[in-house]
């Protein structure tokens, strides 16, 4: 035969291509530039030659990587910010090199690979639909079935001689370790919470310290999540301001800058200040924490406008702000429960059932008071 593969079988070669995709770059929708290159231009499915067809990735992030991450933080192309599932190489790995498992959300992938400088390792990327490890574990995409399937698709048995996989600790809820071992023969070891500890973890014989196992939610961790809390508010805010504009056409006392910065401040208070100051705000419920900060903001708005000595608007309007602004902050602070590591699903449901009716009632009553002031001068 003229076009045999190196194994002597066209059929086997075609099957191997289904398992290992040869790319000169990682396919990332909306992302420019090459992040990776194949270890070798050869393509073969025989033993060690599989290594030659696996994509190699750098441990150094480029400006485009950083820009892509920043854009994702602000919701730009966020749901498409992912890498292809499969197997990747860092350094010059061999059959004894560790295998690290992660999600195909590119920001997660980048966070891992940039911490692997000086190491030779394999990175196995699961198809989590572009979702990070923690969220994907909860949704089931970073799960047992996908892990078992991916091990087979990339033919991991032929890539490494050992039978150990290092999974992120935050992915544990989605994985049944004994099922994986039973189906594939690979043992699951859970690595540290933070990618920054992965090199020390590997060098210590895959033994984690208590510090490595501790889930932290620092001020910085909370701050970097706030852009995605703000972005969804833009559409709602445009609707609110549009309604106020239309009401101004017939209102006796038009809405003005006080209403604009009062509402905007309440949104920022709930989306940014509440998450950043979370540990220091009294109370446990996020809705309560947001309400407290919103209440302080409402007082500040009234003081700025002359209350109580020289008020620029009536008591009815002032009370309307005292109802609406804390409620807005409360709602957006409560929304942050989905990003927090210190909440539970049942706890969030309980808080929502209690808080949402109160928030709706406060906004409705406050809106009535402000409308009465605007239209009939109360």
UniProtKB/TrEMBL annotation:
Domain of life: Bacteria
Keyword Endoplasmic reticulum attached: no
InterPro entries per record: Ac-CoA_synth_d_su_TIM-brl (IPR016041)
Gene3D superfamilies per the UniProt record, alphabetical: 3.40.50.11600
Residue ranges crossing the lipid bilayer per the database entry: 230-251, 260-280, 286-304, 316-334, 354-376
Alphabetized UniProt keyword annotations: Membrane, Transmembrane, Transmembrane helix
Claim: Zinc is one of the keywords in the record: no
Annotated ranges, domain CO dehydrogenase/acetyl-CoA synthase delta subunit TIM barrel: 81-200
Pfam family, one: CdhD
NCBIfam families: HgcA_corrinoid
Protein name: CO dehydrogenase/acetyl-CoA synthase delta subunit, TIM barrel
């Amino acid at each position: 035969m003229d076009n045999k593969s190196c194994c002597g079988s066209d059929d086997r070669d075609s099957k191997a291509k289904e398992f290992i995709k040869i790319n000169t770059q990682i396919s990332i929708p909306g992302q420019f530039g090459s992040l990776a290159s194949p270890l070798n231009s050869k393509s073969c499915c025989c033993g060690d030659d599989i290594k030659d067809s696996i994509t190699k990735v750098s441990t150094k992030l480029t400006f485009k990587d950083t820009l892509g991450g920043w854009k994702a933080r602000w919701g730009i192309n966020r749901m498409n910010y992912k890498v292809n599932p499969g197997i990747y190489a860092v350094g010059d790995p061999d059959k004894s090199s560790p295998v690290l498992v992660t999600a195909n959300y590119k920001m997660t992938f980048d966070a891992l690979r940039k911490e692997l400088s000086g190491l030779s390792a394999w990175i196995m990327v699961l198809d989590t639909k572009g979702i990070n490890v923690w969220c994907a574990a909860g949704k089931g995409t970073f799960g047992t079935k996908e892990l078992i399937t991916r091990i087979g698709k990339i033919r991991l048995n032929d890539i490494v001689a050992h039978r150990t996989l290092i999974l992120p600790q935050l992915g544990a809820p989605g994985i049944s370790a004994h099922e994986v071992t039973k189906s594939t023969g690979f043992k699951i070891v859970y690595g540290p919470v933070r990618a920054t500890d992965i090199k020390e973890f590997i060098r210590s014989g895959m033994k984690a310290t208590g510090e490595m196992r501790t889930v932290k939610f620092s001020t910085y961790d909370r701050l970097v999540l706030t852009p995605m809390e703000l972005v969804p508010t833009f559409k709602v805010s445009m609707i609110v301001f549009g309604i106020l504009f239309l009401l101004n056409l017939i209102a006796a006392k038009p809405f003005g800058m006080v209403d604009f910065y009062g509402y905007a401040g309440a949104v920022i208070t709930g989306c940014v200040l509440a998450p950043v100051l979370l540990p220091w705000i009294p109370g446990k419920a996020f809705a309560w924490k947001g309400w407290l900060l919103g209440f302080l903001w409402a007082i500040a708005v009234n003081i700025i406008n002359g209350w109580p000595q020289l008020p620029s608007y009536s008591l009815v309007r002032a009370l309307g702000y005292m109802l609406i602004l804390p409620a807005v902050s409360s709602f957006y602070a409560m929304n942050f429960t989905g990003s927090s590591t210190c909440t539970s699903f049942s706890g969030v449901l309980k808080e929502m059932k209690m808080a949402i009716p109160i928030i709706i009632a406060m906004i409705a009553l406050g809106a009535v008071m402000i409308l009465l002031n605007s239209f009939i001068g109360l």
